[in-house]
Amino acid sequence: MSSSSKYALGAAVLTLALGCSNGSGTPLGPTGDMAPEKPSGSTGGKKPSAGATSSPSVDEPDAPAGGDHVPELGPPPYQTSKRSLLQWKRQAAFEADLMGALKLSREQLCTEVGGKNCVRDVHLVPLGGNDPYESGLMKPSPEPLATTSSVV
Amino acid sequence: MATLFTSSATARARPEAPGVFCETYPEAADCMGRITECRTCHESTYPTTWNRFGESLIAALPPGVDFAHGLPRALAAVETMDADGDGVSNLEEIRGGTSPGDGNSYWKAPELQTAPDNPRYAIDQYDLAFAFRRASVLYCGKSPTYEELSPFREPDADKEALRAQLHARVAACLKESYWRDEGLKRLADDRIRPAKSAGPDSKVLVVNQRLVIGDYNYDYRLWVYTLTDDRDARDLLLAQYYVVEDGKGGVTLQESTIKKPDPKAFAGGQVLEKSQRAGMITMQWFLVRNTMFSALPRTSAAAAYRAYLGMDIAKTQGLYPVANEPDDVDNKGVDAPRCATCHSTLDPLAYAFAKYNGIAGPSDALLLLLGLADFPFGGYDQGRAAKVMPGWSDTEQQPVIFGKEVGSLRAWAEVAANSDAFARNLAMIFFEHALSRGPTPPEMDEFTALWRSLPDDGYSANRLIHRLIDTQAFGVP
Question: Number of CB pairs < 8 Å for A and B?
């Protein structure tokens, strides 16, 4: 496989796993949910409301110089979700969708460490699963971990 | 809200306060199918400190009036105030389910948008394509294919036909292996709390016996059985049968006791007679894992209350204090003021479990050696409570749940299974699974309608899921 095709496959997998862009800069969630610009209100009635935050603009004086900065995009020119419903596509659907997209069986999809299933054994927790039996992890992580993107 | 008094020097437990609060505001989000918790007014119940809402109530309590009559008047007096300064009045927060004493807890509706319509999503409307994708991931364990989703993207599609298609797909998936073997089971993990080292496959040896304290596979099978195929979900607390594998890849029901499969293991079967059973909370694994060596099985009662009624006594939720309790029958010091706030509810709940063993030795070692007796893990022993708690009296230690006196754990479970708390908790399990959060204040009405529909739907989890899919909370992007 050429390096360019490897990158293309990698990009496709990453896009499939973490969601996709609608082509207009508005991120779409893994299950198709639209990410809110600024979630408003509480979630479940007891948690703090998300405050309005913004990342530094390249136009700000403190912004470091260099060529790696992407100008901050303005809001999309159409209505966006305000309901804070972005959801994480967890391990089972992630695996099933990859198997479907790549036309591979579970055994063919990915094995590590002498044949252990990458999704259900080796990287279960970062991909949104939990193992109550051996690890004593009774609940999955509520949101992606720092290692999730590297595992994907 | 367990303590509320006019001076910290004389502050004392007021565990009746949540009940008074909910009698005053039966329509409050935290009072429908449950009872509000102490932190509505308190930062801490011991030492007693209040949040800003609690402080405003203290200032408004009428002098010379007993607490139960004074609190409703104080609540009325502060309704229009905004104790925590978050811009939402106390009354609005009480009704919506946010905390009137916490400035970081509030709900404000998002601003109306004037931009053109989103080209891909029906913002602020029920979006069938969005719901179809979400339902597929949740209940089928995979996204819909392009072909499956395409009809939902057609601009002039028949919405009723698409809605029928959505429900048909979900109905099919609820019968398939992903939901039964994986999706639904994971919702039980934190309720069953299995541990391989002490489960049926344990390799740990103790005095030549395998450390099997129970077989949690019975618990998982009952969980899946009751929550599939339109069965009555109250069997989670009422089942008097065991769900066993039939050897052909399916399951069958068994009403007799089940002998442990490995004579060299401590446990691993089901030992209770039918009349002593109450679904998940009398499974051998549940009783042994939670009661263990306790004389009074407070942990079993608290675990049952938390897992199947949605209230965590450790978080001062679901307090229905019983007069003259706790009796401190096992001399643990729980009648101290700092403990009594919760134990006046917890101990009467736990009395119902006191005749069920946790980890227990055989009554006669000789019979054990002769193979005529076994380790009575999770078994029923009419005399157990009096044996392990010398102060125990069957007349004094009256089991109580939700203020109702009951004569047995079976009766306890019947009250629990028919309560609003059970229905609300069941709906919350599936709501949180679907949305990764609880309902927001604008969603409370449809959430309440969801759990209140359970009796009409025969307590079917499947029908609950279909109703959930139709909610705005589920289908509006």
Answer: 143
